[in-house]
Automatic annotation (TrEMBL), chain A:
SMART domains the record matches: PlsC
Domain of life: Bacteria
Keywords: Acyltransferase, Transferase
Bilayer-spanning residue ranges: none
Residues in Phospholipid/glycerol acyltransferase domain copies: 88-207
Region ranges (Disordered): 1-23
Protein known as: 1-acyl-sn-glycerol-3-phosphate acyltransferase
Stored InterPro entries: P_lipid/glycerol_AcTrfase_prd (IPR016676), Plipid/glycerol_acylTrfase (IPR002123)
Source organism per UniProt: Geodermatophilus dictyosporus
Automatic annotation (TrEMBL), chain B:
NAD-dependent epimerase/dehydratase domain mapped to chain residues: 6-188
Xref: InterPro entries: Epimerase_deHydtase, Lipid_A_modif_metabolic_enz, NAD(P)-bd_dom_sf
Species per Swiss-Prot/TrEMBL record: Geodermatophilus dictyosporus
Name of the protein described by the UniProt record: UDP-glucose 4-epimerase
Alphabetical list of PANTHER family matching this protein: BIFUNCTIONAL POLYMYXIN RESISTANCE PROTEIN ARNA (PTHR43245), NAD-DEPENDENT EPIMERASE_DEHYDRATASE (PTHR43245:SF52)
SUPFAM superfamilies associated with the record: NAD(P)-binding Rossmann-fold domains
Length: 301, 372
């Protein structure tokens, strides 16, 4: 029997585009050398927030990708709800003792979104006060969570990420893991209203189990100037081994955008509206978390 | 209306001298009077043209006589020292900056001829801390008020200038908040810092740096002196660079030092007269500072000719790199060629082996024809 061969048919007027081949090893090495040359001579661009796209694309994202694909096996839902262009404010729940959820959402939006959107995170001032952490946070595209920076980024048509729960969220005890904490003072809604950009609610399930925080050493935290010092079943008992996150199964779902432009910028001065919108976003995310939990058959699968 | 008689303080330094020379070339300006405590260098003196030099200390009431007898109508205050090394220690520096400004403003207030005051201030008044927004506009204030040094002096000076403008509302006051200067000729804190072959920086921090080329600094000052802008404006080039990037582009070596040790290293180097690291300078090296220059372009009406990158490139021509970028380029090109040669050899070998084992399928020959 002659071997069957699949011949792709294409219309006459469409030029044949060969599928992009995986770069061969020598092309990859040449790319690496070229990257090193750029880094050593400083010939790359950074923006006013300290974002370094060259470093993010070639070092930071590739480092996070195995964690995203293999370790947490992140599934992204509703990516079509994130606009392909223009500014938007992604509001998500925060958990997991260490803000790994922010990093994974960045990878999700870059790799799974057709427009490969850059996610500009807003972080607490403590992040930028810490050496090394602060430096890489800025190079990764993060900036301080304040209304000035948020509005500047939104006006620059960036996709801005905010975790209104803050330290109350990532430092929540394990028993409260799926319960949203108070949503700050609604500053994110004000920023969205002032700039007229949509709010995209985002629910992340899976981050809760990576470092189950069963206790909080308050004295140590106060000595180190940290908001909490986590005690998990493996940390600090197993030392550095306790730093390995548990391989929970992650689901990230983006909900339908909440439009804010129709309220007008003056609405940012209306506290009632701001509170209502904050509650609406919070409720949407909480419902979405419960739905994702039903979808997920078990914590590790 | 262009100014008739301009008084420039701090004329013996490069920027002050350049401004006086620029104004002296302008025929619309009747007289240019330069004031400083030290006489200008011979080179500078030649370029000053018809500028009249008065050797006076602005801390001395004599300055009032100069203003009233010459009927000065525009005062450009640039005699603000940014480093203790240049003025003989922190004590004299503070005295020159703060007491000098108070004396000068007192003289201006009692001189009815004065109708314009230009202050060369600095964006250091915004401070530098992890709680800062990424970009400062003119309406923002320091989140953490600078505790000492040049930034504190500048804050005090701006405060005195504000109260002066309340007392003399008829005087147009322009406050120019400059970012760090750079350029082949200017002598600023940053140019001295970057001339060191090994540049110590704070470990684990990378400051965002916004630069202004000396030619643009001069342009902004000239426009502020001859124009009629009143208010506060940030002056800086477009774009930013990270400090590590600046060091790499200049071919310097970066030496990250833990922040606490950097302070003592600074005191050590200051003793030998290299560069001084005051605590607020250190905070700048940790966090950096970027200002919004929309007002400079729109209301003030000046667009810097050099971006931060271009200004640095112009400065780079005057410093010989420790690590030449050509060398890195050559090395990289060599390595790339070697790898691609090895790659092509491997590909041929691979193709031959692969081709024998599994012949490639023939190119698709069939074509679909669209429905008529």
């Amino acid at each position: 029997m002659p071997e069957a061969r699949v011949i792709q048919l294409r219309p006459d007027d469409e030029s044949h585009v060969p599928p992009a081949a995986e770069p061969s090893w020598d092309e990859q090495v040449v790319g690496g050398v070229e990257f090193l040359r750029r880094r050593l001579t400083g010939e790359y661009a950074t923006d006013e927030f300290g974002f370094d796209p060259d470093l993010t694309d070639h070092v930071l994202l590739p480092l996070l990708r195995p964690l995203f694909r293999r370790w947490f096996r992140v599934e992204t839902h509703g990516i079509e709800n994130v606009p392909t262009s223009g500014g938007a404010l992604v509001v998500a729940n925060h958990s997991g003792t260490v803000p790994v959820d922010a990093l994974m959402t960045t990878v999700a939006l870059h790799d799974d979104h057709p427009a490969q959107r850059r996610f500009r995170l807003l972080g607490a001032d403590l992040v930028f006060d810490l050496p090394v952490v602060g430096e890489f946070a800025r190079k990764f595209g993060a900036t301080l969570a304040c209304s000035e920076d948020a509005e500047r980024l939104l006006c620059g048509d960036e996709l801005v990420g905010v975790f209104p729960e803050g330290f109350k969220g990532i430092g929540k005890p394990f028993r409260d893991r799926y319960t949203l904490q108070r949503f700050g003072r609604g500053g994110f809604v004000t920023a969205a209203l002032r700039t007229g950009k949509p709010i995209v609610p985002c629910a992340i399930v899976g981050a809760e189990e990576i470092y189950p925080m069963v206790g909080n050493a308050r004295t140590v935290a106060r000595l180190l100037g940290l908001p909490y010092f986590p005690i998990t079943p493996t940390f600090p008992a197993l030392g550095p081994l306790g730093l390995v996150p548990l391989p929970s199964k992650w689901l990230i779902a983006f909900g339908e955008p909440i439009e804010t432009a129709s309220y007008g910028p003056a609405a940012a001065e209306d506290p009632m509206l701001v509170f209502n919108l904050t509650d609406q976003v919070r409720e949407t995310i909480q419902q979405s978390i419960y739905q994702l939990l039903l979808q997920r058959s078990s914590v590790f699968s | 209306m262009p100014p008739a008689v301009v008084l420039v303080t701090g004329v013996s330094r490069w920027l002050g001298g350049a401004l006086a020379a620029e104004l002296a070339r302008d025929p619309a300006v009747e007289r240019v009077i330069g004031v400083d405590t030290v006489p200008p260098s011979a080179d500078l003196l030649r370029s000053l043209g018809r500028t009249e030099f008065v050797r006076a200390d602005i801390r001395n009431p004599l300055i009032g006589k100069v203003i009233s007898t010459a009927a000065v109508d525009t005062v450009v205050h640039m005699n603000i020292s940014s480093t203790p090394a240049g003025s003989g220690g922190r004590g004299p520096m503070k005295e020159l900056n703060v007491i000098g400004t108070m004396q000068l403003l007192a003289a201006c207030q009692s001189a009815p001829s004065v109708r314009r005051l230009v202050l060369k201030s600095t964006s250091a008044v915004y401070g530098a801390s992890p709680r800062d927004p990424a970009v400062f506009t003119e309406t923002m204030q320091a989140r953490r008020v600078p505790s000492g040094g040049f930034a504190k002096d500048s804050l005090d000076i701006e405060g005195y200038v504000r109260s002066f403008s309340r007392r003399r509302p008829d005087v147009g006051v322009a406050v120019l908040r400059f970012t760090n200067f750079i350029g082949p000729r200017i002598d600023s804190v940053l140019t001295g810092f970057l001339r060191m072959p090994v540049v110590p920086t704070a470990l684990g921090y990378d400051a965002r740096v916004q630069l202004l080329h000396e030619a643009d600094a001069l342009g902004v000052l000239t426009r502020a002196t001859t124009g009629d802008f009143a208010g506060t404006v940030n002056a800086g080039g477009t774009g930013t660079l990270l400090l590590s990037q600046v060091i790499r582009r200049l071919g310097r070596l970066q030496l990250p030092v833990p922040s606490p040790a950097l302070g003592s290293l600074g005191r050590f180097t200051r003793r030998f007269g290299f560069v001084d690291y005051s605590p607020e300078q250190m905070r700048f090296l940790n966090f950096g500072r970027v200002v919004d220059t929309t007002r400079l372009r729109t209301e003030f009406g000046y667009t810097p000719r050099y971006t931060t990158e271009a200004a640095l490139a112009d400065y780079a021509q005057t410093v010989s790199p420790v690590v030449p970028s050509d060398l890195i380029g050559e090395l990289a090109a060599g390595a790339e060629e070697l790898v691609s040669r090895a790659g092509s050899v491997a590909a041929t070998v691979g193709a031959t082996v692969h081709g024998r084992l599994r012949p490639a399928p023939a190119a698709p020959g069939l074509r679909a024809v669209r429905d008529a």
